[in-house]
């Protein structure tokens, strides 16, 4: 047989968002003028209080191993945050701090999912969900949504796929890539379907603070029966502009958190000690002005996109993405090239218009593309001018 990789490694699909970001940065490093709207990374600085806390930790010699689950101070702070902001009461032994929310989700999948178990994932979905399920030996069950339902799964859709093999259902609100937010009544309707089932609920709430004109509700807060089967995932990357610090957490049932902690003890051990000190400080220093700036950018981008030919775009209520439908461009020509897929469209936009966007295929939505407005208004204006000029040269 010779030297080879495992079937698991051979089956992993690379993240299309990070792949596009890497390609864009390589072009920029060669001196090419590219506007990067591909990556979900806020352009704001980490709160200075968090950075100073990390510097202070280094100066004080707080650079050793910590408890695998995270320092007690941080887990207590997370418990206070969840109770005060989300109406969720946890004890510190129900919290596991990990190396980013992606790591939290990976821990969940490897802890809960056995080969053949099914995990229900509404599409469009964050690109990592189905890949992590497959890595655990599970089967992603994709529920297709679109603009007609606000990119949200309906109770009837959920009821049709929920079965004896269902181990978990993933809910992401606000969602990536769509910015969709489940309202309280929509979660309550899904809860009616989920309440009698024996499956877990994985509630990814990483964008919860970046929300516009609607209320963020955690499904775990609706009642005790849902609380007992829900794993709430959150972190510091998006709301606190701490992507590089790699700090996330899971809150959930004690037995699951204990098993996840054992798993983490054999992989990464604890998250970085100084990042944890930064996290404690960050929780008390969220800047609401960030939300208003993102709202202004969203409105600007929507206004521009909706005036462009063969592009439609639903209004997102959270996160910092728009997810325009560009099916009207598929099959059209740019110069001598016929654009058959959104992958091809995004490649041409990168090469010819110097705009980096992400095709919707990786999100389970081949008619859409994702545009991140987590960049300056100047960059957004330049990028949309370039897109407008590009579209003016497209012929059906």
Number of domains: 2
Structural class, by secondary structure, is: alpha/beta
Q: Largest sheet, if any?
A: 7 strands, mixed
**How are the strands of the largest sheet arranged?**
2-8-7-6-5-3-4
Considering the chains and any ligands shown, give keywords for the structure.
14 helices; Aspartate Aminotransferase, domain 1; globular; Aspartate Aminotransferase, domain 2; 2 domains; seven-stranded mixed sheet; 396 residues; three-stranded antiparallel sheet; alpha/beta
Describe the protein.
- By secondary structure, the chain is an alpha/beta fold.
- The chain has two domains: 8-39 and 288-391, Aspartate Aminotransferase, domain 1, CATH 3.90.1150.10; 48-282, Type I PLP-dependent aspartate aminotransferase-like (Major domain) (Aspartate Aminotransferase, domain 2), CATH 3.40.640.10.
- It has 14 helices and 15 strands.
- Strands 2-8-7-6-5-3-4 form a seven-stranded mixed beta sheet, with helices on both faces. Strands 9-14-13 form a three-stranded antiparallel beta sheet. Strands 11-10-15 form a three-stranded antiparallel beta sheet.
- It is globular, with a radius of gyration of 21 Å.
- The mean pLDDT is 95.
Short description:
The protein has helices at residues 7-10, 16-29, 48-59, 72-86, 101-112, 128-135, 155-161, 184-194, 224-227, 254-265, 273-282, 289-305, 342-353, 377-392, and strands spanning 35-36, 95-98, 118-123, 139-144, 166-172, 200-204, 230-235, 248-251, 321-322, 333-334, 337-338, 355-356, 358-359, 369-372, 394-395.
């Amino acid at each position: 047989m010779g030297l080879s990789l495992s079937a698991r490694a051979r089956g992993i699909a690379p993240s299309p968002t990070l792949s596009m970001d890497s390609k864009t940065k390589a072009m920029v490093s060669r001196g090419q003028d590219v506007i990067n709207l591909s990556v979900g990374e806020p352009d704001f600085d980490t709160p200075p209080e968090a950075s100073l806390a990390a510097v202070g930790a280094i100066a004080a010699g707080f650079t050793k191993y910590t408890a695998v689950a995270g320092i007690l101070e941080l887990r207590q702070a997370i418990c206070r945050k969840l109770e005060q902001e989300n109406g969720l009461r946890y004890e510190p032994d129900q919290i596991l701090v990990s190396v980013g929310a992606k790591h939290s989700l990976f821990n969940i999948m490897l802890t809960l999912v056995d080969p053949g178990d099914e995990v229900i994932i509404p599409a469009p979905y964050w690109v990592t969900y189905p890949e992590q399920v497959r890595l655990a030996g599970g089967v992603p069950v994709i529920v297709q949504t679109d603009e007609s339902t606000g990119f949200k799964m309906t109770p009837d859709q959920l009821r049709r796929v929920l079965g004896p093999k269902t181990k978990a259902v993933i809910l992401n609100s606000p969602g990536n890539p769509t910015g969709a937010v489940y309202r309280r009544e929509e979660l309550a309707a899904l809860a009616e379907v989920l309440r009698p089932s024996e499956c877990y609920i994985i509630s990814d709430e990483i964008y919860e603070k970046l929300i516009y004109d609607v209320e963020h509700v955690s499904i775990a807060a609706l009642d005790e029966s849902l609380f007992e089967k829900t794993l709430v995932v959150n972190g510091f990357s998006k709301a606190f502009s701490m992507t590089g610090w790699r700090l996330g957490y899971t809150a959930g049932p004690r037995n699951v958190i204990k098993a996840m902690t054992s798993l983490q003890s054999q992989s990464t051990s604890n998250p970085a000690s100084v990042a944890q000190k930064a996290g404690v400080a960050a929780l008390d220093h969220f800047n609401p002005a960030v939300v208003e700036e993102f709202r202004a950018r969203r409105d600007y981008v929507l206004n521009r996109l909706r005036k462009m030919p063969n592009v439609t775009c639903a209004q997102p209520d959270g996160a910092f993405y728009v997810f325009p439908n560009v099916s009207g461009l598929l099959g059209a020509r740019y110069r001598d090239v016929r654009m058959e897929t959104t992958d091809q469209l995004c490649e041409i936009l990168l090469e010819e218009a110097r705009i980096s966007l992400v095709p919707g295929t990786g999100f389970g939505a081949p008619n859409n593309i994702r545009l991140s407005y987590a960049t300056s208004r100047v960059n957004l204006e330049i990028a949309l001018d370039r897109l407008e000029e590009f579209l003016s040269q497209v012929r059906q």
